[in-house]
Write a structure and sequence with these properties.
Order of helices and strands: HHHEHEEEEEEEEEEEEEH
Helix content: 25-40%
CATH superfamily of the domain at 178-257: Rod shape-determining protein MreC, domain 2
Strand order of the largest sheet: 3-4-7-6-5-14
Number of helices: 5
Distance between the termini: 101 Å
Strand content: 25-35%
Radius of gyration: 32 Å
CATH architecture of the domain at 178-257: Beta Barrel
Structural class: alpha+beta
Length: about 280
């Protein structure tokens, strides 16, 4: 305490001058518009770069948390779509309930598809046979034949699984054949890829008399055991008629940008085994 008092006595006049000077600048700043503007402009030159640096530095560390939050939000939105549910009701029970009490006539929704997400750790787009690797495996509930999509559209199908990773056969693979439909005509076809352009694919099995136009959107049909309906595949960019067949040649611009895939969503058909069993019985008849 004695040293502090000695310091104040020694530099009293200097401290008083600085205090009064600061007080005068504050009063001038609040009493006149131009000095306030000039001071703000002068300090902005120094504070703006500092603020931008601090913002970018903090955002760099918060980006992964923000991205994870967006992924989870998208996951919930996907899980809540109507196409992921089977709408069912017992007609006999419903008829009886309608006669007794219409308020008890309830429609039951049964989940058909469920979703999870993963990060892409490896991806090829310029090979004849392209694959991705994701950081989720059997210990995370991943199984083969799960559909893989992005926030943009279709990515591929899980074809091999280890405890911690999974291999995805990309849409950019000659063996990828995806049941599709064209809107607004609702015509069914098949989307496949040929080696070359990773941004384009072809829509096959469309008869030439169908009313299909450039600019029409192509979605998954929902007629497979793997992909839900209405997942975007791409937009028709070229249309031509083949001289050797009665089918159209349609080129798509793919919705998914395979050059920039970081996070993907895994779609599991919860009743796939049951559906396959019935299909195998129908094929054997």
């Amino acid at each position: 305490m004695g040293n502090l008092l000695a310091f104040i006595r020694r530099y009293f006049h200097v401290l008083l001058f600085v205090t009064l000077q600061v007080l005068a600048m504050v009063m001038l700043y609040h009493s006149m518009n131009y000095p306030r503007f000039a001071l703000a402009r002068a300090t902005q030159v120094v504070t703006t770069p500092i603020n931008e640096f601090c913002y970018k530095w903090v955002r760099h560390f918060n980006f992964s948390l923000e991205n994870e939050g967006l992924v989870k939000q998208n996951l919930e939105l996907m899980r809540s779509q109507e196409a992921n549910f089977l709408v069912s009701s017992d007609s006999l029970s419903t008829a009886y309930q309608e006669q007794v009490d219409t308020l008890r006539n309830q429609i039951r929704r049964v989940r058909l598809y469920d979703y999870s997400y993963a990060n892409v750790v490896y991806n090829t787009i310029h090979h004849h046979y392209n694959y991705l690797m994701i950081d989720k495996g059997s210990e995370d509930g991943v199984v083969t034949d799960m559909a893989v999509i992005s926030s943009q559209g279709v990515v591929g199908v899980v074809t091999d699984v280890t405890p911690h990773f999974a291999k995805v056969t990309s849409l950019l693979h000659p063996n990828s054949k995806i049941s599709a439909k064209v809107l607004p005509s609702n015509q069914l076809g098949t989307v496949s890829w040929e080696f070359g352009d990773p941004t384009s694919a072809f829509l096959e099995d469309i008869p030439e008399h169908m009313d299909i136009h450039v600019g029409d959107s192509v979605f998954t049909s929902g007629y497979s055991d793997i992909f839900p309906s209405n997942i975007l595949l791409g937009v028709i960019t070229e249309k031509s008629k083949s001289a050797s067949s009665s089918f159209l040649t349609l080129k798509l611009h793919l919705a998914t940008d395979f050059n920039h895939i970081n996070t993907v969503y895994l779609v599991r058909n919860l009743y796939k085994d049951e559906m396959e069993t019935l299909k195998s019985k129908m094929e054997n008849e």
